[in-house]
């Protein structure tokens, strides 16, 4: 029986270790994909749960507020800003409340109001007429109405901001639809994009649009590499 040399045994051992490392890396990638998929599913579920909710920002707080008072406040806002909608629609509120107090009770800004409707269509109708009106008020003072979304989705919507502003300035009629898709009119058709990579792929086939958006897309790509560059310099 032929005995293996020390070098051969070492090479076999190294090969076994390399195979094990390869398996560990593959398993790690699978776990990362699973975690990311689960996080995305959780975000989608949370956004779906919040979908009938309307978020009101800047509405002053009153002493000893209860649900009845808050509902009256909402009705006053609808009547003040959307009288036609107030006459035509039954708001069908399921629940209305203030957001929890996260900071000092003496903070100057009022807590946000969250309204949950029985049907998502009512929330969407209010948001649509609010966009058309442009300025929404409560007793003459400006307030804001938005969809109630998860923190991750809100961040995704904010990241569209620079591109949205460029497209709006150039009259592409951009819109950020639920939950965080950017859509705009291009060559007579409405195009929608779930993320910026899809948009990058699209603009490569539209030189004029690529030139228009290259700075915003390049800035974002630069930001992705910025932490690595800083670490390298240290």
From TrEMBL:
Would the keyword Ribosomal protein be found if you checked this record's keyword annotation? no
All residue ranges annotated as the L1 transposable element RRM domain in the record: 51-148
List UniProt keywords, sorted A-Z: Coiled coil
Coiled-coil segments on the chain, per record: 7-34
Question: Record's superkingdom?
Answer: Eukaryota
Where does the L1 transposable element trimerization domain start and stop, copy by copy?
11-48
Q: What region holds the L1 transposable element dsRBD-like domain?
A: 151-215
Question: Is Flavoprotein a UniProt keyword of this protein?
Answer: no
> Which InterPro entries does the UniProt entry name for this protein?
L1_C, L1_dsRBD, L1_RRM_dom, L1_trimer, Transposase_22
Similarity comment: family membership: Belongs to the transposase 22 family.
Q: What is this protein called?
A: L1 transposable element RRM domain-containing protein
């Amino acid at each position: 029986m032929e005995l293996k040399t020390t070098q051969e045994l070492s090479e076999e051992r190294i090969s076994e270790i390399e195979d094990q490392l390869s398996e560990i890396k593959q398993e790690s990638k699978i776990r990362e994909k699973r975690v990311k998929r689960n996080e995305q599913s959780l975000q989608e579920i949370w956004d779906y749960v919040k979908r009938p909710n309307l978020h009101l920002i800047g509405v002053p707080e009153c002493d000893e507020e209860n649900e009845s008072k808050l509902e009256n406040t909402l009705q006053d806002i609808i009547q003040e800003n959307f009288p036609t909608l107030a006459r035509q629609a039954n708001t069908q509120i399921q629940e209305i409340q203030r957001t929890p107090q996260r900071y000092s009770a003496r903070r100057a800004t009022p807590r946000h109001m969250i309204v949950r409707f029985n049907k998502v269509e009512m929330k969407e109708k209010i948001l649509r007429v609010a966009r058309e009106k442009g300025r929404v008020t409560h007793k003459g003072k400006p307030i804001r109405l938005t969809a109630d979304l998860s923190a991750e989705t809100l961040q995704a919507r904010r990241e569209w901001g620079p591109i949205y502003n460029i497209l709006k300035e150039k009259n592409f009629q951009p819109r950020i639809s639920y939950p965080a898709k950017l859509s705009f009119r291009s060559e007579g058709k409405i195009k929608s994009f779930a993320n910026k990579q899809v948009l990058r792929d699209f603009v490569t086939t539209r030189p004029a649009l690529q030139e228009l958006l290259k700075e915003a897309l390049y800035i974002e790509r630069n930001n992705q590499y910025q932490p690595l560059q800083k670490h390298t310099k240290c």
